[in-house]
Amino acid sequence: MNATLGFERLAVETGKSTKSLQRMLGASGNPTAENLNAILKVLQECEEVQFRIRIDGTAA
Fold first, then answer.
1. How many other C-beta atoms can be found within 10 angstroms of the C-beta atom of residue 16?
2. What percentage of the chain carries pLDDT values higher than 70?
3. Contact indicator for 35, 16 with CB cutoff of 8 Å
4. Which of 17, 20, 29, 60 lies at a 20 to 30 A Cα distance from 39?
5. How many structural domains is the chain composed of?
């Protein structure tokens, strides 16, 4: 996160506190799907990339 945009900017963009983001993205963090989606959306916009999800039907 720090190499991309930093926790301060991510906090502003997501409306979450920097401490909350650091906790949820830490080693023992457990972000909700809603929070993870918000973070990924900001990263996509910042880096001008698009994430795609592909389900191919095979077991891992």
1. 19
2. 88
3. yes
4. 60
5. 1
Task: Indicate the residue type of 39.
Answer: I
Tell me the pLDDT tens digit for each residue of 27-56.
Answer: 999 999 999 999 999 989 988 888 888 888
Residue indicated by tokens 């989606």: 37
Is residue 30 included in any domain, yes or no? yes
Nearest alpha carbon to residue 14 among 3, 28, 25 = 25
How big is the chain by its Cα radius of gyration, in Å? 13
In angstroms, the CA 17 to CA 12 distance is: 8
Burial class (CB in 10 A: 0-12, 13-18, 19+), 10: buried
